[in-house]
Amino acid sequence: MSYITKPKVAYAGLNKNKLGLTIRNYEGGMSTLCAGCGHDSITAALIQACFELNIPPERAAKMSGIGCSSKTPAYFLNAAHGINAVHGRMPAIATGANAANRNLYYIGVSGDGDSLSIGLGPFAHSIRRNLNMLYIIENNGVYGLTKGQFSASADMGSTTPKGQLNQQPPIDPVLLALSLGGSFVARSFSGDKEQLVPLIKAGLTHKGFALLDVISPCVTFNDHQGSTKSYAYTRAHSHETIHTDFIPHADEIKVEYDEGAVVPVQLHDGSQILLRKVDPDYNPKDPGDAISYIQHHHEKGEIVTGLLYLDDNARDLHAVANTTDQPLTELSYDKLCPGAKALEDVFEAYR
Amino acid sequence: MHKTEKDRLNDFVIRLANVNGTGSATANSLLMKSIFRMGIPVVAKNFFPSNIQGLPTWYEIRISKDGYVSHTGRVDLMVAMNAQTYIQDRDDVSPGGYLLYDSSWPRGDKLARDDITLLGIPLSKMCNEAFTDARERILMKNVGYVGAVAALIEIDMNVVRGQLQKTFANKEQLMAANLRAMQLGYDYAKEHFDCPLPIRVKAMDKTDDYMMIDGNTAAALGCVYAGATFAAWYPITPSTSLMDAFARYCERYRKDSDSGENRYCIVQAEDELAAIGMVIGASWTGARAFTSTSGPGISLMTEFLGFAYYAEIPAVIFDVQRGGPSTGLPTRTQQADLLACAYASHGDTRHVLLFPANPEECFYFGAEAFDLAERLQTPVIVLSDLDIGMNEWMCPRLKWDESYQPDRGKIISTEELEKLEDFYRYEDKDGDGICYRTYPGMHPKGAYFTRGSGHNRYGGYTEDPVEYQEVLDRLLRKARTARKLVPKSVVLKRRGATSGIIAIGSSDGAVREALDRLDKPMDYLRIRGFPFGHEVQKFIDAHEQIFVVEQNRDAQLRSLLTVELDVNKRKLVSVLHYDGFPIGADHVVDGINDALKQESAA
Question: Does B299 lie at the interface with A, CB-CB under 8 angstroms?
Answer without folding.
Answer: no
